[in-house]
Design a protein that fits this description.
By secondary structure, this protein is of the alpha/beta class. The chain is built from 7 helices and 12 strands. Helix 2 crosses helix 6 and helix 4 runs parallel beside helix 5. The longest helix is centred in the C-terminal third of the chain and has 19 residues. Homotrimer.
């Protein structure tokens, strides 16, 4: 099982805790559907507002399994993509798209059942001028993303795992998930739950 598949099975909250919450994208970047989950290496795209031609370049340069991460400076009036471009991302085998901006044709995108994380949806289309770059360091949702960094997202949001911290982050996240599962069993008993809460109160 690849490291991306392993991360996909872990709640993004556990991964966030592993990185002390320092690499979480802005909380307004959420999946169009709560059931969407992503995990994969970043293919980064830097765009100007109201110009999505380089988004298409990113689609063809990205490798199957990549997550296309788009920095458009939180601009939201014009959509970075609609259902056709997102459908193309699915056909090309990408793992998902994360946009620090908006999309349109949201109903059509949901029908593709392809994971899209963004700040929301809008009506206006973008122009195609062609200013921008692919596979450079970017800032998306307030977090620096380098090509190849691991992008994990679920209903709670998106977290970035730097390439050089992937192994240690996975190890910590697995331990955190196991601890959370063990703690959840306390809820089966009121006395055990009360005892656990009291211990936390004593420590504070």
């Amino acid at each position: 099982m690849s490291i991306y598949e392993q991360f996909l099975k872990i709640p993004a909250t556990c991964i966030s805790d592993s990185l002390k919450g320092l690499t979480n994208m802005d909380f307004t970047i959420k999946p169009l559907k709560e059931t969407y989950k992503i995990s994969g290496p970043a293919c980064t795209v830097k765009l100007l507002a109201n110009d999505n031609l380089i988004f298409l370049k990113g689609l063809v340069l990205a490798k199957p399994g990549d997550v296309l991460v788009v920095d458009i400076g939180s601009y939201q009036y014009n959509a970075i993509a609609g259902d056709f471009m997102i459908g193309a991302a699915k056909v090309l085998g990408l793992a998902g798209v994360v946009v620090d901006g908006t999309v349109r044709d949201s109903a059509g995108i949901k029908e593709t059942d392809f994971p899209v994380f963004c700040r929301g949806n809008t009506l206006a289309a973008s122009n195609k001028v062609g200013i921008g770059e692919v596979n450079i360091p970017i800032c998306c949702g307030g977090v620096v993303v380098n090509p190849g960094d691991i992008i994990i997202g679920d209903a709670d949001g998106v977290v970035v795992v730097p390439q050089d911290r992937a192994t240690e982050t996975l190890k910590f996240a697995l331990k955190k998930e196991q601890a959370d599962r063990k703690r959840a069993k306390l809820l089966e008993s009121a006395n055990a739950t009360r005892e656990y809460i009291n211990k936390l109160l004593l420590k504070s």
